[in-house]
């Protein structure tokens, strides 16, 4: 028997750096919400990938940004917590945005917050800039921090991702696998289902309701015919928001429900009956139970 390797890999970076896209590519399935809006990943989502004899457990952290609200602070605490617990940390930087104020702040915090982790740099979205700009950016970042390795990737198109995965597998500590071979995520299916619906809402509503809604899977029933009946609650903060989510004659909620159901059916490989209900809960951002549902610590939101 060959010795196996296993460990945690944290993907960190600013909002929209492509962490969720890279996680989904590494795992080969959709386990993390991907939208064009920033700050959509709320919980540390673990995706599991195999590379030879190594099992890589990816922690997709919320984007690191300057927190203003309780939810923001809990998300940032979750991101740094994911980095501190990892064997390897991969900092993702967008090639076309370069060294922003946010990237500088992350670089300053890296030394303090990641004790003995191996830290690599992944410059993402390389198709958006010319080669000479990439080389200058690589030099600037490596002068600011002593990265073990630097990778040029496009998480969306897959460029450089195999090299990154092979390096990660080689650098993980020796040890037994933590998950069964066919498991791709350690999130409960109920949470994955809620995230899929929240993604569809985010994509559909764009500007109207940026972060003021959350989705919970209230009930999951396995039926005798092999299908699943899933009831979900969409919490919004005001009556006016409820109208936006429902849409004219219920068109928006119907479209969201259809898109979420189709993706769930593809993900689960069976029929799904999805029922969505919208509830107004003005203070859900201050409700400890909602944070637990999102995999966040309510106490981390304290100023």
TrEMBL record:
SUPFAM superfamilies: P-loop containing nucleoside triphosphate hydrolases, Prokaryotic type KH domain (KH-domain type II). Residues 13-20 are annotated as: G1. This is GTPase Era. An essential GTPase that binds both GDP and GTP, with rapid nucleotide exchange. Plays a role in 16S rRNA processing and 30S ribosomal subunit biogenesis and possibly also in cell cycle regulation and energy metabolism. One of its GO terms (cellular component) is cytosol. Residues 205-282 form the KH type-2 domain. Its main location: cytoplasm. Residues 39-43 are annotated as: G2. GO terms for biological process: ribosomal small subunit assembly. It is found in: Cytoplasm; Cell membrane. Monomer. GTP binds at residues 13-20, 60-64, 124-127. Residues 124-127 are annotated as: G4. Belongs to the TRAFAC class TrmE-Era-EngA-EngB-Septin-like GTPase superfamily. Era GTPase family. PANTHER family: GTPASE ERA, GTPASE ERA, MITOCHONDRIAL. InterPro entries: G_ERA_dom, GTP-bd, GTPase_Era-like, KH_dom-like_a/b, KH_dom_type_2, KH_sf_prok-type, P-loop_NTPase, Small_GTP-bd. Residues 153-155 are annotated as: G5. Keywords: Cell membrane, Cytoplasm, GTP-binding, Membrane, Nucleotide-binding, Ribosome biogenesis, RNA-binding, rRNA-binding. It comes from the Bacteria. It is a peripheral membrane protein. Residues 60-63 are annotated as: G3. One of its GO terms (molecular function) is ribosomal small subunit binding. Residues 5-174 form the Era-type G domain. The gene is era. Coiled coil: none annotated.
